[in-house]
Design goal:
The protein has 123 residues and is α/β, with parallel strands linked by helices. It has a single domain, classed as Response regulator (Rossmann fold, 3-Layer(aba) Sandwich). Helices cover 42% and strands 22% of the residues. A 5-stranded parallel beta sheet has the order 2-1-3-4-5. The chain is globular.
Length: 123
């Protein structure tokens, strides 16, 4: 089973995602970007990362930037799932090669799962 690293500080969305993904993927959940970096060092076969943008300790932008800089992890697709539509979020995400951005309040979960499967298949 393919592994997804989920970095989400809100239990509500973490639980929704784990429930939606549990039949197709093993979901490894941590609460912030710093813990996400540590988990990447521990688990060698992560197929995809889903991260929130706004989190304590290390936000999703900095986390994603560090992942994309590291040759061991730079090929792992990253999806940003954020609750805040901020004008510069998409611009910053494009600069660091984020694969997709979804906004929590607008998520079509079927489309979200479809995109995850496509990214993992093509990744």
């Amino acid at each position: 089973m393919k592994k997804i690293l989920l970095i989400e500080d809100e239990d509500l969305y973490a639980n929704i995602l784990k429930e939606k993904l549990k039949n197709d993927f093993e979901v490894i959940h941590v609460y912030d970007g710093l813990s996400g970096i540590k988990k990447l060092e521990e688990v060698n076969d992560i197929s995809l990362i889903i991260t929130d943008w706004m989190m304590p300790n290390m936000n999703g932008g900095k986390f994603s930037y560090l992942v994309k800089l590291n040759k061991n992890y730079s090929s792992i697709p990253i999806i940003i799932l954020t609750g805040r539509k901020m004008p510069d979020t998409e611009m910053k995400a494009k600069k660091i090669n984020i694969n997709l951005i979804f906004y929590k309040q607008d998520v079509d979960w079927d489309e979200f799962i479809k995109k995850i499967k496509e990214l993992i298949k093509n990744g």
